Amino acid sequence: MSQHFQFHLDHTDESTSARAGRWSTPHGVVNTPAFMPVGTLATVKGLTVDQLREAGAQMVLSNTYHLALRPGADVVAEMGGLHGFMQWDGPILTDSGGFQVFSLAKLAKLDDDGVAFRSHIDGSLLELTPQRAIDIQEKLGADCIMCLDECPPHDVPRERMLEAVTRTTRWAARCREAQTRDDQALFGIVQGGTDLGLREESAAGLLPLDFPGYAVGGLSVGESPREMYQTLDGTVPLLPADRPRYLMGVGTPRDLLEAVLRGVDLFDCVMPTRNGRNAMAFTSAGPVKMRNLKHQRDPGPLDPACDCPVCTRYSRAYLRHLFIAREMLGPILLSWHNIAFYQKLLRDLRVAIAENRAEEFRQVHLAAWGQ
């Protein structure tokens, strides 16, 4: 285990599997459970790094596939790696590009060696093998990097899902062998869809590789929330208790609560910013659609329970006006608030875990959101 990373488990809730901990990285400590805003192309859309910090973000995520296409890993390396390039001095995680096997399936050709993509930008060819994925991520310089994995649709036949699990395990071993930097934590990714038997097989293949952290991939890709929670019930206990557990690409505020109470430590999702750009805000009373006419003359804050800069400075009337007038400030402000909401939710949940009231916290919030 690299000396650059330490995971300390501070407390586990008495009635659930919720954990509060601290993960030390070369660029700072992440208090867990934690949510990472998504900065696919070395930027969280519409927000400066100062705004991210003010919103409470501890760690951000960027994407290997997209950055390999533009501006290119060599360019990022020459500019000081992602930290220097985007001027974010906190921890960064890079996804390997494996999710693009799922999301860009029509542009990809997959075999045991790796995956070849036709760029969604100009049609140029990008070949991504496990070794190449590691090489790119080492040049990008993130604190946490991911093994290349295969993420098939959740409803494929079991034989096809087994093939993806087997390939993901083989690729993980190749990624482990290819890694040369000890200042990057390489995570293995457990696949298997909603099939608990395959999830167990995937974990069993990855655990001997002794990764410093483990991720659960292949969820929130079309299955129902109930199926996702049941899959987490059977998968999270398979992962080492002394290392960070990361649920990739998830999700709604309820998803975060449910996953934390099942023992998950890290999250990322585009939902706060994507919804913010589309005039939907997450609040302590549930989602709010800011284009609705009822906000036209509302002088009140977006969320009275939120102390973010958006809620302390601007009225609902003004925020609605920005969207109706198609001013770029509207998406910026709602994205800023939504990230702050996610950060506050997990910050408050960390306190609840320490006080052994995680289940009470869940029930109170779901009732407030009408869920």
Please provide a brief summary of the model.
The chain is α/β, with parallel strands linked by helices. Helix content is 41%, strand content 18%. Helix 1 runs parallel beside helix 14 (329-354) and helix 7 packs parallel to helix 8.
Overview of this protein structure:
Residues 1-24 are annotated as: Disordered. Residues 249-255, 273-277 are annotated as: RNA binding. This protein is α/β, with parallel strands linked by helices. It folds into 2 domains: 6-269, Queuine tRNA-ribosyltransferase-like (TIM Barrel), CATH 3.20.20; 271-371, no CATH class. Helices cover 41% and strands 18% of the residues. The chain contains 15 helices and 16 strands. It has helices spanning 49-55, 64-69, 73-78, 81-86, 98-103, 130-140, 158-178, 196-206, 225-235, 253-260, 271-277, 309-313, 316-324, 329-354, 358-368, and strands at residues 6-12, 19-25, 28-32, 34-37, 60-63, 92-95, 108-110, 115-118, 125-128, 144-146, 185-190, 213-216, 245-247, 266-269, 280-281, 288-289. The strands form 4 sheets. It has an 8-stranded parallel β-sheet. It has a 3-stranded antiparallel β-sheet with strand order 1-2-3. Helix 8 (196-206) links the parallel strand 11 and strand 12 (213-216). Helix 7 runs parallel beside helix 8 (196-206) and helix 11 (271-277) runs antiparallel to helix 14. The longest helix has 26 residues, at 329-354. The protein is globular. The termini are far apart. The mean pLDDT is 96.
